[in-house]
UniProtKB/TrEMBL annotation:
Residues of the DNA-binding region: 1-96
Lineage: Bacteria, Bacillati, Actinomycetota, Actinomycetes, Streptosporangiales
Keyword Cytoplasm: no
Classification via Gene3D superfamilies: P-loop containing nucleotide triphosphate hydrolases, Tetratricopeptide repeat domain, Winged helix-like DNA-binding domain superfamily/Winged helix DNA-binding domain
Protein name, as recorded: BTAD domain-containing putative transcriptional regulator
Keyword Chaperone (UniProt): no
UniProt keywords, alphabetically: DNA-binding
PANTHER family reported in the protein's UniProt record: HTH-TYPE TRANSCRIPTIONAL REGULATOR RV0890C-RELATED, REGULATOR-RELATED
Family that this chain belongs to: Belongs to the AfsR/DnrI/RedD regulatory family.
Taxonomy, superkingdom: Bacteria
Organism name: Actinomadura rugatobispora
Length: 992
C-alpha cells in the first residue's frame, strides 16, 4: 500500500491500483494521520481536526467509526492492510514505512540531490484539498518550500548539463511565483549568459537588485553579487558544457540492474553498425536496455529519439506504409518528408516493439538508412527485422546474482529494511524464485511487488499459478505473453502449445512426433519451430545436435493455451510414447561402440524421461512404467543413479501390482534390478530368488550385485549359469560381462591364474564389442592382479587407462573406484601424500554423486593410509565411519577388512585386548563371506595381538597360516614384518 500527499490525497495498492477512500471525514482522518506520519495522534487532536472544531455529541465513538471505515477501505483493497492504521495509547498512528508515503520518498530524494526523481512525484499542490486546514497547513507549506528547493537544485544541475537555453526561457514563470528567490535568479542569470545573452543577464540582475531593495530594503547576497561581477568580466569559469542534443528519451525512475556489460556491448555494436536489433522474449528488458544504451550517445549529435510502436495498428501499417512514417515523424517533430528531414542529421532512432510491424518497418528502415547516412537505428522486438546489414543482439535473462539483486532492490523500494534483514537462507530462496521466473526482469519486478503483502515464501509457493499471481495493474506478465501469442498464426500457436509438454527441451525429431497432428502436418513442424525461435519463444542450443527449449514462463503460458484447446492429454501421450521409444532404443546401444553418444543423449533427455515416468505412474500405467524403467536401468547403473533408479523401480512395481503372462517378464526384471540396486547401495532388503526362466542378462545382473554385496557363492553360481547361456547364444557382450565378474571372484578366492585368464578374455571381448564401461572394469581387475604380483608400474598404467576411459564417458562410479586404486598404489609405493590426494578426490567425487559405496571405499583408503603414517586418531576416525556404514548395510567382506584395519590401530597403540577382539570378529566375518584374502589379513592381525600378549608360539603359527593363504609382495609386508620382528625380539619363532 502506498500513500500520496504531493497533490490530491491518494492511496494505491502495491500494483498501482487506486484505492477508494469514501467519505470526507474518513479522508480527512487519513490526511491528518499522514501529516503526523509515523507518530501517534491523540484522539482529541483527531476529533478537533476532522470535525473542524465542532465535534459530534459522541465524538469518541464517531472517531472509532471513521477509523473502522478507513481500515475497511484499506483491507478491501489489499488483504492485511487494515493493520496499517494502528491503535496506540490515547490515539492512533499510520504504521507505514517511509517508502510507502510519497512525501517521505520525496524528502529522501531531495537529501540525495536526486531532484528530477523527487519532482516527478508531485501531482499538484501538497495536501491539495487540505492545504488550508489548520492541521495540514504547516506541513503543506513546508513541502511546497522543499518543492521549490528541489526545483532550484534541478535548475542548477540542468545548467551544469548544458541545458541553459531551455532554462533561460522556462525560469521566468517560476520566478513570477517566487520573485524573491535569489538562487533561482542566479540560475537564470547564468543560463542567459551561457546562451550568449549577456545584456539580458545583466538586466535580470538589475531587476532582482531593485526588487530586493524596494520590498525588503536589502542588497543581493554575496553569491548573487559575485555572479554579477563574473558576468561583467566574462569570467571563463562561467562556461558550461554545450547544449545537449534534443531527445525525447524518458528519464528512468529506477536504476538498471545487472546489464552493465550488455549496455557496453550494445553501444559498441551501435558504433560499428547502423542497424542493431535487440531480440528476446516478453519481459526480458529489451526496451530498458535500449534506452540505457542510447543515453549519452556521442555519435548522435542530433539526438536520440524513441518511437514507441506497440500502439500502431499492424493491419493499418501494412495497408498504408505512410502510417509508420508518420508515427516516426511525429515523435521527432518532423514536418514534411521524413527521409529528407533526416538526410543531414546524425540521429539515433529507437524503434521499440517492432515485431508486429516487421514487414513495413523493414522496408521503411532500409529506405531511411539509404537516404540518411548519419542515421542509426536501434530496434527492439521479439524477432529480427531481417534486412541486410542488421546486427542482432539477443537479450539474455538475468543471471543469478543480477536477478537476486534486482529482486532485493525492488522489494526494498516498497518495503524498507528487507535487503538489510535478508540472510543467506533468503538469498537461496530468492535465487530459486528468480530461476523459476527465468531471470525475466518483468516477472521478477512483479513478484517483488507481491512480497510485502504475501511474504517471500507465499510468493514462491504460488508460482505454479504465476499469471494470476502477477496479474493485476497495468503491467502484467499475462499481458506480455498475450501480445506474443496474438502475433502467431494458428499453426505456430498449435506447435507452441503442444511442445509445452516437453520438460528440459527437445530436438526436431521429438517436436515432429509430438506437435504434428490436426492442423499441422509433420513436414510443417520444422518451419513452425524455426518461426517460434525467431520470435524468441523458443531458445536454440546450436552445440552438437540442434536442440530447442522454452523458458518456464513461456511453457506455463503455452500449457494453459493447450488445455484451453483440449489437447493436453493427447499431447502428453505422444510425448510419453516418443520418449519411451528413445529409452528403448538407447538400451540397445548402451553396450557397444555408441555407448558415449547414447549416454549423453539420455543425459540431455533426463527431464523428459522423468516427466514420462511420473506421468505413467500418476495414471497408474504400471506395466508401461515397468518397461520404461527396464529400458533405463542400465543407463541409471552406468551413471551411478542408484537411488533414483531404486525409487523408480519401486514405484513402478507398486503401480503395476502382480502380473502374469507376458507382463511377468517385466516384473521379474524389475525385481532383479531393485535387488541389484539395493546390493550396490547396501540397502536392507529381502533376498530375491530368481525364477528358472530368468533371462541370462538378468541372472548375470543379480550375480553381479550379489558379488558386490559380498555373497560370493551365490554370485558365482548365478554368473556361471549366465555364462553358459551367453556362450551358447554367441552373446559376446554377455560373455565378457560374466567373465569380468568371475575374474573378480577368482581373485577374491585366491585363484590368480583363473582371474587373469578371465580378466584378459573379458577385456578382449569388451574391446571387440566397443563397450568402454566393460573395458574399464576388466582393466581394473587386471590392474589389481598386477598389484598382487608386485608389478606396480603395470598396475598404474592399467588403472590410469581405465580411469581415462571412465572420465571421458563420465562413468563416475568407475572413476571413484579407479582413483581409489591409484591411491592404494601410491600408498604401497610409500607416497602417502599422493595416496591421500587420490583418496580425497575419490571421496569428493563420490559425495557429489551420492555413491554410498564409493564414499565408504575412499574413507577406508584414507584410514589405511593414515594408519601406515602413524596418524592413528585420523585413521580411527575414517575407519570407524566405514565400520558404522558396513554394519548398517550388512556388507560382510567390507566390514571384515575395516575391523582388521581397526585391529592393527589398536595393536599399534599397544591395546592387545581390543586388537584381539577386532581381529577375531574380522576373521569370523571373512570366513562367513568366503573371502580368503581378508581371512589372511585378519589372521595376521590376530598374530599381532597375540604377540603383544606374549603368546609367541600361536602368533608364529598364525603368521605361517596367513602366508600359505596369500603370499605378500614386499610392499605389503609392513604389518607382517613388524609382528615377526616383535616375535624375534621376544625370543620366539618369527613365523616367516
Amino acid at each position: 500500500m502506498r500513500f500520496g500527499v504531493l497533490g490530491p490525497l491518494a492511496v494505491w495498492t502495491d500494483t498501482g491500483e487506486e484505492v477508494a477512500v469514501p467519505g470526507a471525514k474518513v479522508r480527512a482522518l487519513l490526511a491528518d494521520l499522514l501529516v503526523h506520519h509515523g507518530r501517534t495522534v491523540p484522539a482529541g487532536t483527531l476529533i478537533e481536526d476532522v470535525w473542524e472544531g465542532a465535534p459530534p455529541a459522541q465524538a469518541t465513538g464517531a472517531l472509532q467509526s471513521k477509523v473502522a471505515q478507513l481500515r475497511g477501505a484499506l483491507e478491501r483493497a489489499e488483504p492485511g492492510a487494515r493493520a496499517l492504521v494502528e491503535t496506540a495509547p490515547h490515539g492512533y498512528r499510520l504504521r507505514a514505512e517511509p517508502s510507502q508515503v510519497d512525501a517521505a520518498v520525496f524528502a529522501d530524494l531531495l537529501a540525495s540531490a536526486r531532484y528530477e526523481e523527487a519532482l516527478a512525484l508531485w501531482r499538484g499542490p501538497a495536501f491539495a484539498e487540505y492545504a488550508g486546514t489548520p492541521f495540514a497547513r504547516a506541513a503543506a507549506e513546508r513541502l511546497e518550500e522543499q518543492r521549490v528547493t528541489a526545483f532550484e537544485g534541478l535548475a542548477e544541475q540542468r545548467v551544469e548539463r548544458g541545458e541553459h537555453r531551455a532554462l533561460a526561457d522556462e525560469l521566468p514563470a517560476m520566478l513570477a511565483a517566487h520573485p524573491l528567490r535569489e538562487r533561482l535568479h542566479a540560475v537564470r542569470i547564468r543560463a542567459l549568459y551561457l546562451d550568449g545573452r549577456q545584456a539580458e543577464a545583466l538586466e535580470a540582475y538589475r531587476e532582482i537588485r531593485e526588487r530586493l531593495a524596494e520590498e525588503l530594503g536589502v542588497d543581493p547576497g554575496p553569491e548573487l553579487a559575485a555572479l554579477h561581477q563574473a558576468v561583467l568580466r566574462q569570467d571563463p569559469a562561467l562556461a558550461g558544457p554545450p547544449e545537449p542534443p534534443a531527445t525525447n528519451l524518458p528519464v528512468p525512475l529506477t536504476a538498471l540492474v545487472g546489464r552493465e556489460e550488455a549496455v557496453s556491448e550494445v553501444r559498441e555494436l551501435l558504433r560499428a553498425h547502423r542497424l542493431v536489433t535487440l531480440t528476446g522474449p516478453a519481459g526480458v528488458g529489451k526496451t530498458r536496455l535500449a534506452l540505457e544504451a542510447a543515453a549519452s550517445r556521442a555519435d548522435a549529435a542530433d539526438g536520440a529519439w524513441l518511437v514507441e510502436l506497440a500502439g500502431v495498428d499492424a493491419a493499418g501499417a501494412r495497408a498504408d506504409p505512410a502510417v509508420l512514417a508518420e508515427r516516426i515523424a511525429a515523435a521527432l517533430g518532423v514536418r514534411g518528408a521524413l527521409s529528407e528531414a533526416l538526410r543531414g542529421r546524425r540521429t539515433l532512432l529507437i524503434l521499440d516493439t517492432v515485431e508486429h510491424l516487421a514487414a513495413p518497418a523493414s522496408r521503411l528502415v532500409v529506405a531511411l538508412l539509404g537516404a540518411a547516412p548519419g542515421l542509426r537505428v536501434l530496434a527492439t522486438g521479439r524477432e529480427p527485422l531481417a534486412v541486410p546489414g542488421e546486427r542482432l543482439w539477443p537479450v539474455p535473462p538475468l543471471g543469478r546474482e543480477a536477478a537476486v539483486r534486482l529482486f532485493r532492490e525492488r522489494v526494498a523500494d516498497a518495503f524498507s529494511g528487507f535487503a538489510a534483514e535478508a540472510g543467506d537462507g533468503d538469498t537461496e530462496e530468492i535465487a530459486a524464485l528468480c530461476r523459476r521466473l527465468d531471470g525475466l526482469p518483468l516477472a521478477i519486478e512483479l513478484a517483488a511487488a507481491r512480497v510485502r503483502t504475501l511474504g517471500l515464501g507465499e510468493v514462491a509457493a504460488r508460482l505454479d499459478d504465476r499469471f494470476r499471481l502477477l496479474g493485476s495493474g497495468a503491467r502484467t506478465l499475462r499481458a506480455a505473453f498475450d501480445w506474443s501469442w496474438d502475433l502467431l498464426d494458428d499453426r505456430e500457436r498449435a506447435v507452441l502449445g503442444r511442445l509445452s509438454v516437453c520438460a528440459g527441451g527437445f530436438d526436431l525429431a521429438a517436436a515432429e512426433a509430438i506437435a504434428a497432428g490436426e492442423g499441422v502436418a509433420a513436414g510443417e513442424v520444422a518451419g513452425a519451430v524455426a518461426a517460434l525461435a525467431d520470435r524468441s519463444l523458443l531458445s536454440v542450443d546450436g552445440s552438437g545436435t540442434r536442440r530447442f527449449g522454452m523458458l518456464e514462463s513461456v511453457a506455463a503460458y503455452a500449457r494453459e493455451r493447450l488445455a484451453e484447446a483440449g489437447e493436453a492429454e493427447e499431447c502428453a501421450d505422444r510425448h510419453a510414447r516418443h520418449f519411451a521409444g528413445v529409452a528403448a532404443e538407447a538400451d540397445r546401444h548402451l553396450r557397444g561402440p555408441a555407448q558415449r553418444e547414447w549416454l549423453r543423449r539420455l543425459d540431455t533427455e533426463t527431464g523428459n524421461l522423468r516427466a514420462v515416468l511420473d506421468r505413467l505412474l500418476d495414471r497408474d500405467a504400471g506395466q508401461r512404467a515397468l518397461r520404461m524403467c527396464g529400458a533405463l536401468g542400465w543407463y541409471w547403473f552406468l551413471r551411478g543413479r542408484y537411488r533414483e533408479a531404486h525409487r523408480a523401480f519401486g514405484r513402478a512395481l507398486g503401480a503395476a501390482g502382480p502380473a502374469g503372462g507376458a507382463e511377468s517378464g517385466a516384473r521379474s526384471g524389475a525385481l532383479v534390478w531393485r535387488a541389484a540396486l539395493e546390493a550396490w547401495e547396501r540397502m536392507p532388503a529381502d533376498p530375491v530368488e530368481p525364477p528358472d526362466e530368468l533371462p541370462a542378462r538378468e541372472r548375470w545382473l543379480l550375480g553381479l550385485a550379489r558379488a558386490d554385496g559380498g555373497d560370493l557363492p551365490a554370485a558365482i553360481a548365478l554368473v556361471n549359469a549366465a555364462l553358459e547361456e551367453f556362450r551358447r547364444a554367441g552373446d559376446r557382450w554377455g560373455t565378457a560381462a560374466a567373465l569380468s565378474v568371475l575374474g573378480w571372484e577368482s581373485l577374491r578366492l585366491g585363484d590368480l591364474p583363473a582371474a587373469r585368464r578371465e580378466g584378459e578374455e573379458a577385456l578382449a571381448l569388451f574391446r571387440e564389442t566397443g563397450d568402454r564401461w566393460g573395458g574399464s572394469r576388466a582393466l581394473r581387475l587386471l590392474g589389481v592382479l598386477a598389484e598382487v604380483d608386485g608389478d606396480y608400474g603395470r598396475a598404474g598404467r592399467l588403472h590410469r587407462e581405465g580411469l581415462a576411459s571412465a572420465e571421458e564417458l563420465e562413468l563416475w562410479p568407475v572413476v571413484v573406484e579407479e582413483i581409489s586404486q591409484l591411491g592404494r598404489l601410491a600408498a604401497l609405493a610409500g607416497d602417502h601424500a599422493a595416496a591421500d590426494a587420490h583418496y580425497e578426490r575419490a571421496l569428493r567425487v563420490a559425495r557429489e554423486g551420492s555413491f554410498h559405496h564409493g564414499v565408504v571405499h575412499a574413507r577406508v583408503g584414507l584410514g589405511a593410509s593414515a594408519r601406515r603414517q602413524g596418524r592413528l586418531e585420523a585413521a580411527e576416525e575414517h575407519l570407524r565411519a566405514a565400520e558404522e556404514a558396513h554394519r548398517a548395510d550388512g556388507y560382510r567382506s567390507g566390514l571384515a577388512y575395516v575391523l582388521a584395519e581397526l585391529g592393527f590401530v589398536a595393536e599399534l597403540r599397544g591395546d592387545a585386548a581390543t586388537a584381539r577382539a577386532r581381529h577375531e570378529e574380522s576373521l569370523a566375518l571373512a570366513r562367513d563371506a568366503a573371502d580368503p584374502r581378508t581371512v589372511a589379513l585378519a589372521t595376521e592381525g590376530l598374530a599381532g595381538a597375540l604377540s603383544l600378549e606374549g603368546d609367541t608360539g600361536t602368533a608364529a603359527r598364525l603368521l605361517a597360516e596367513a602366508s600359505a593363504i596369500r603370499p605378500l609382495p614386499p610392499a605389503e609386508r609392513g604389518d607382517v614384518d613388524r609382528i615377526a620382528a616383535r616375535l624375534a625380539a621376544a625370543g620366539g619363532p618369527s613365523g616367516r
